[in-house]
Design brief:
With about 250 residues, the chain is an all-alpha fold. It has helices at about 10-25, 30-60, 80-95, 95-115, 120-125, 145-150, 155-165, 175-195, 205-215, 220-225; strands at about 80, 205. The protein binds iron/sulfur cluster.
Length: about 250
């Protein structure tokens, strides 16, 4: 079948104008930050739907990911502060109180054991994200998972399995740029919109950011004032370790 359309990925500058306009109208508050993440995830979902349709129609890329396949949930996840606040709100209020308390304890304990470990170290150690259900291998926060998780995909499950079984963090799996452009565009857009308002926006390690929110006082308020409560939760270059040179 001839297909004469292609998914149009979000574009950083255009999205930045949308965010600047949104924060100009609503102010930069806890409510508007959480709403903005809501919109970001809804827009990402629509975009990914078009990407799946496109690959279905053109058969140019096979998406091998399926429910319960979680090899890629054993590495480091980077997020930006608005996403960490959004997920923390969901963990506090989106579960029964007992389940919520248990999750927070798990995240804090996970962070105590693993803070500072790179993506490769987590992969080699098969250190699962604390949001992954150990029995079903399903993400327990699927609907509110970060942009980085939303863009993870593979064109073939075999290399993912080999990488996991051999603990080879650099074993390549086929991927497609259309998935990663979404995350980059929204990171750029948030960066432009919030940096110009004096807020600090840098990539954070997911669990360290959540543990900071759950264990320290007034983290959201401090961040909104332009302070950096996530100083020790940064997903710096050492944690996002690039593959060794060939
Ligand atoms: S948040 Fe969910 S999708 Fe992301 S790494 Fe954790 S378990 Fe996997």
């Amino acid at each position: 079948m001839t297909v004469n359309w292609k998914p149009e990925p979000p574009e950083g500058e255009r999205e930045a104008r949308r965010y600047i306009d949104f924060f100009t109208r609503n102010g930069i508050t806890k409510k508007s930050i959480l709403q903005s993440v809501d919109h970001t995830y809804a827009r990402s979902n629509s975009y990914f739907d078009t990407v799946y349709d496109y690959f279905d129609q053109t058969e140019t890329f096979n998406i091998a990911c399926s429910k319960g396949c979680a090899f890629c949930c054993h590495t480091m996840v980077s997020v930006i502060a608005p996403e960490a606040f959004y997920l923390a709100e969901h963990i506090k209020n989106g579960f029964e109180p007992e389940e919520s308390r248990r999750k927070i304890e798990q995240i804090v304990e996970h962070d105590r054991q693993h803070r500072g470990k790179s993506g490769a170290q987590r992969h080699v150690g098969r250190i699962a994200c604390p949001m992954l259900d150990p029995e079903t291998h399903l993400c327990t926060v699927h609907g509110v998972r970060p942009l980085t998780c939303r863009s993870m995909h593979s064109g073939d499950v075999t290399p993912c399995r080999v990488a996991f079984e051999t603990r080879d963090a650099y074993h390549p799996a086929p991927s497609h740029a259309l998935f990663f452009k979404n995350t980059q565009a929204y990171y750029d857009a948030y960066g432009t919109a919030l940096h110009s308002a004096g807020l600090i926006l840098e990539p954070l390690e997911l669990n360290a950011a959540l543990a900071t929110i759950f264990t320290e006082k007034n983290v959201f308020v401090r961040w909104l004032k332009g302070e950096n409560p996530f100083e020790n939760a940064s997903a710096d270059a050492g944690l996002t370790d690039a593959p060794p040179p060939a």
